[in-house]
Amino acid sequence: MTASAAAPFRLSAAQYGLIAANFLMWGGFFAVIPLVTVHFVDGLGWAAASVGLVLGLRQLTQQGLTVFGGAWADRIGAKPLILAGCLIRTLGFIWMGFAGNLPVLLAASILAGIGGGLFDAPKNAAITTVTAPEHRARMFSLTSISGNLGMVTGPLIGAWLIGVGFRTAAVAAGSVYLLACAVLALTLPHIRPERAASGLAGLRAAALDRRFRRFTLVLVGYFLLSTQLNVAVTLKAVSLAGPGATGPLYGLSAGLAVVLQYPLLRFVERRVRTRVALVAAVLTVGLSLGLMGLAATFGQLLACVALYSLGTMLVYPTQQTLTARLAPPGLTGSYFGFSAISLGLGGAVGNLVGGVLIDLGARLGVPLLPWLTLMGVGVLTALGLRWALKEVPTREQVERAQA
């Protein structure tokens, strides 16, 4: 009898709490962050570059601190850091609502980024701790679905709240993190690490782990591609259908993830190994971006976005599952923290490269240039992952080693 058959997947109170809190966090984030540009640029007449600096510093702060947040979780446990992060983000978002000048808004956004850096990797470590190895891909998929639901509902609530005022929207979004904090305080157990890592020993172990280091660095290519929905794909959609195209674009991507991610993952995990699924998913993302260059209508572009979404919705749970598999006992948080490097580097480079490639293609009169380049990055990343994962043990091998 397999481990999966012996232990059916039934959600515990801690798992329900993590799923609910993830929905609240994503919903609260997308209820206010898109409104920052609307309020301060369109409403108050600030320079767009100023607001771009604010949003960029928040992301940089969060991604930078995430690396260390995971290491701290290995020392004191995930729960205290997640709760502290939620409370700090509450204060940061509420403070945004009262910002009347750029220095105050920058300080508030950095505070919000600190909160995110404290709960990001520890949240993934907590999911790993409360979920059996054979069920982790499904648990990560469910939390991803809850996040996508938040990404869909958050902007709708934010659009309604902005009519009342940005300050009200910011206070409401901050309060959502307070609610998430309460949910996790009640449902998530405080599990202290059996062997607490000292100082930055966990991060050092992750950095020196040749297999995991390869895995993390190759994934930079994927995250470069994943940012293109916000850059190259959005620019293409607007050129084909005008500014109103962004709503259907994001709605389709998030909606497909909500409806299909879990059943698609269940279908795939019965038939192929996790590492094979990850390679195939990244290849799908790259090929879909290449096809977008051939899209002549908005409908054709949406069809390509649907294919793109099928790939991205498989990457998150498989990547997180492999990260948990590679992490030694007691160092899960450090490994999830170190893995944030791929998102930080890939996201930063992707935001820059996407726009540069679009401009270069237009200047050279070769509109296919950005899309063929992105497809090439996808193919190279898939090949790189196949190489990086060849020494990664299967779940069955890990279970036999731990038996």
Automatic annotation (TrEMBL):
Its membrane topology: Multi-pass membrane protein
TM stretches of this protein: 16-37, 104-121, 142-163, 169-191, 212-235, 247-265, 277-310, 335-357, 369-389
Residue intervals of the Major facilitator superfamily (MFS) profile domain: 1-396
Pfam families found in the cross-reference section: MFS_1
Subcellular location(s) per record: Cell membrane
Keywords (A to Z) from UniProt: Cell membrane, Membrane, Transmembrane, Transmembrane helix, Transport
The name this protein goes by in its record: Major facilitator family protein
Superkingdom, natural source: Bacteria
CC annotations in GO: plasma membrane
GO MF entry, a single one: transmembrane transporter activity
